[in-house]
Every structure is written in structure tokens, then in C-alpha cells.
Request: fold
Amino acid sequence: MILFVISISCEAIAQTVHCRFKEWGQVKMDELKMTDCDFEKGVPAMLILDLADVKYKQDQSIYSSSIRVNTAYYQRFKIFKDKGTGRVQKRIPVTVSNNEEIKNIYAISYNLVNGEIRQTVLAPDDIHRTKLNDRQEIVTFAAPGVQPGSVVEMAYELEENVNNMLPRWYFTSDIPNAYSSISVGFLDALVYYVQKHNVVGDTIFERREDFSSEVKYKSGYSAGYALPGTRRTYTMSHVRSYEAEPYTNASRNYTSWINFQFSYARSPFGESDSWVSSFDKFADKLYSNDDFLGNLALNPVPRKQWKALISDTMNSEEKARALFEFVRANLSDNGKGGTTTRNTNSMTWKNKTGSQTEINLLLISVLRAAGLPAYPMLVGDRRLGKVNQNYPIFADYTGIDALVEISGDKKIVLDASEKFLPFGEPPLDQINTMGWEVKGLHNHDWYSIGETSPSRTNVMITADMDDEGQLHGVIDIIYTNHEAEKMMALRNAGKQSATANYLKVILPNVNIEAISDSVLNDAHCFRQQVKFTMQVNRDNDDDIFISPGNIYGSNVNPFVNITRRADVDFGNTGTTVVSMRLTLPTSYRTDSLMPSYILRTSDSSASYSFRSEVEDGVLATVSRLDFHRAFYPVEEYPMLFEFEKKYIDTRQRPVILHRNKL
Reply:
């Protein structure tokens, strides 16, 4: 790595860099002398400034299907500790197939050396571009010469084509942010929906000023003229940091950010069908699309094939199940997300592959052909944040499911792109989200997506113990529902190493000698069998201490902080039952067993029980952990915190075995 180290004034270096932020190079001596963040103590680093500036690209044709924008980013960091030096390493994904471009990359670190400011400048050769495929590349660079005490400036520009959304801006970072601001040059010819999301206690300040856009209107003119517009700046200050806590569904739900989506166009731009300003217009956009309507109406599956699967003696649910399993078995997901289609139903059926949306639109057409009321439902992903139910934000939706009305109020969510879940069980990333069911132009509604049954993990430990306290045995684990789906998806992708690594987490004290697994497709179950050995704990009197909790299950409590900012989302409800049958050597006895006990949360939504007995030289134990709720709002975290603390403690309490005296 080549570093340029210079000791000149901040003003001089600013003249050598073409950065459009006036703040560039204006590092202050007080910033270099800072030793801690004044509004969040003890952090490894902080952002002094975090800025963005959005402009429309010059000479943009108004007849283009997308609009090209240039967003400049500027950050000024203060590094307090060694742990904070990694904050000034950038890894930026670029979609080259969408003509995205990263340019004007700069980075400088400032350090105090013998009372003088020393600057270390990023060399062009230390900016690396790695091509991932024909569509994407990664741009990586890092500020050089960074150490505790450094102040670091970094800047770059991203040019991209945008169809509906301007870049989302996060005021919140994983380190505290003293001043965060985005300035956007809105065109008066384009109307935006501005979505603000604020953490409780934070405030957004706005300022408005006149400006002229750089977009040129060429139609009928030899020279373009500047379209009028308004520049708005959104600012927050003293924003506390946020890092994702265990079992957080989406970090953005608990941070402050702002989002911009095109709503509609005015003259001289023509009205575009791709811009909508209400859910009625969104439904109209869908049902006015010939491809969308064609896929709903056209059933490409030969009538003879699907007719053979159902009969008049079947009820609606039985018919839906038979047709769903048929479509699921014949089509595979190509991994291309989104709510738009690239292929007709005929092409999807011919190729036997499609996106989630294409597969489920085909499924809807088959269900409708059989006389079942099935409708498209736009769905999101709980890991991406809550869906805006007041305004149609396109980025909220990742695909389309089929929603089938069975009888009365009963509806079933079907996703035929999901291979490993039982019929009618929604994918994990959709549980506890809202889907948007669209029946027609003015007929649409929200549907709360929930799981149909809890997941279950059954564990059977069968082992013999020798006189030296060595265990030899087998651990048999059977997973159902969403727990099984995770394992089967990894296995299907050829990632057995990932399932083996998972076993190392839940069997931390076990010496794994061999692993075998199998998929029980009819029951949608996944089975793992582990041959193992383990040395149990012994004291100086040769007494042995053994706990099933030290054989199976992680003993790491995920909830170690007394306070929490995010809700707790386990994803799905579930039950884990751990049974153990341990054959004891004749040289050991149990004078007394641990009494049976049960723990419960105050609302009984979570519980843990344990019981044990000895008969004919076999120690038998059974424990059961139940979570009847998957979601706990942050207000209920103290209850969950206390439960987890007691649970981790009690599950490790040992049964004591005494050596028989000669």
C-alpha cells in the first residue's frame, strides 16, 4: 500500500480534492483533541458529520423510463479506540447492469504528531473494484493511517438510474452521529411521497430554499432550459447509535431514516404508469397491466393433468392442497425477486422455473381454473421492516403469494416457491407481517400473516457412561415446520457443513464422531443423528455432575443487557423437548434426584419444565421449553429477560452421581 503522508494545513489539502461539500478539509483542532463522545460515552468511534447531497444528472432526457441521479456522500469520523478503526473501511456494492457508477472517491486521516496535524491520503491504487458477476461489482477502500485519536474524512459519489425511489437516508448509524443531513433537489415537475421514520425523542428539522434543477428539457428546443425546483434539507443532530440486538426483526424499525418515492409527474414530464399515489392507483396499475392480468387468467397446465388431481368429493381445502403440491413439485424458484413478472405463465410452465411472483401467479391461475377463489397478495419481509399501510411504497414488497378463501373467514396463504414447509404454512420471513390482498381495481385489503402451527424440535439422548465418567451414545434430533425448513434448505443447497456448524453451537461440550441426516418429506421433518462421546465433570471425591443442558443446547444467554431498544421477534413459536436415557455403571448411584420444577413468564407465554427419575440403573430426564408467542414488544422485555436468566441457570443444574464405596 502506498501512502502519501504530508504535514500541511487543512485548507491546502481541500484545494486538491474535487469534493462538492464545503465541509471537506475543515477539520478543527478541537476535533483532533476529543477523547470521547459528549452525548454517548465510551464508544469506539463517532460520526462528527454524515452528509449526502442528491442531484439530478445534467442532460437527462425526460422521456427516459428512469431518471439518473448523482448522490454525493461525505463522512467525518472521530476514532477513540482500536475497535473503532474498522469503521473507516468501505465495501460498496454496485449494480453495473443498472449503469451504477462509483466515482470521486477520497479519504484522508488526520493525526496529531508532536502538536502538528499530519495527513495521510488515500492513494488511487488502493481503491479496489472486484467483479462478482456480469451484474455486480464491489468497490472497497479504507482510510489509511488510522489510529485511536484520528479524525477521518471520506467522500464519494454514486450515480444511478432510479425508477420510483430516491436513495433512502439513515440518520442513525451503529456509532453515534453528531450531525446527519441529506439535501435533495426536488423537481417541481415531480411530486414525491416523503416517508419519515423517527425514533421516539428524535426530531427532524427542515429548511426550504429555491434552486434550479440540472435536468434539461429538450423537446422542441435547440437548447434545454433548467426546470424549476425546490431543494430541501433534512437534518438531525446528536443521534445515538443503534446496533442490531438479538432477535430483532428489522433494524430499520428502530432507527431514524427518511425515504423518497415518486408520486406523480406534472408538465413538462408526462404522466407515468410506474408512479402511483394511492393504493387504489396501485391496484389499478396492477389490473391494467396486460402481463399481470394474463398470468392471472391463463392456466398453462394441461386440463387433463390438473383435473386428475381433484374430485367432486373433495372439499375446497383438499382441492387447494392437491393443486398446490402439484405446482410446487413441478416448478423451482430462480431466485429473482420482486412483484413484477419477466415471463408469462406459459413460459414459466415450459421452463419449469420462475420467480416467487411468477410461480404463485401460475398457482392462482390453476386454483381459479378449479373454481377456487384465489387472489394475489403482495408480501414483504419482516427482516426489511414494517409495510407502510398508508401509502404504497414499492420497496416494501418482495413478492406475491396466493391467498385462497376456503370457507367463511378461513383463508390460506400459499407460496409454491417454498419447497420445505407444510401446505398452508407461510415462509418464516413473512410471519407477523401484513400482506396486501388485491382482488380488483377498487377491491383490496390487508391480511395479517401468521403461522398455522408451532415448530417443534424433539431431542433424544441415549448414552452409556463408563466408570471414568465417559459418555458414549447417540443424539437423535427431529425438527418440524420452520425449524425443519431451515435445515432442509441448507441440505438442498449442498451446505451440509452449515448444518454441522449449527450442531457445534447446540452441542458445545460434545465430541462429535459422526453425523447422519435425512429428510422425512411426507411429514416435512428433518432428522439428524449424532454419534458422540463426552467427558462429564468429576470432583476430587469421584462424584459426577451431569446435566442434559450441558449435552444439548447453547448455554449462552442472548439477553444479557438489562435494557433494550428493539422488540423481540423469534420469528415463530416453538417447542423443544429434550429426553435423555443414560445407562449408569454399577459403580455409581444417585442418592437423590433434582426435584421436578417449572418456570413460567407472568403471562404463561413461555415456560420451561424438568423432571427426572432412575429405574434399573437408567437415569431418565425430560425437559420442555415452550414459546407460545413469537413476538414480545420492548415493553415486555423485562419479563423475558428474567425468564431467560432463570432458564439458563436451571437447565444447567446437574444431577449428582456418587461412586459406591468398596
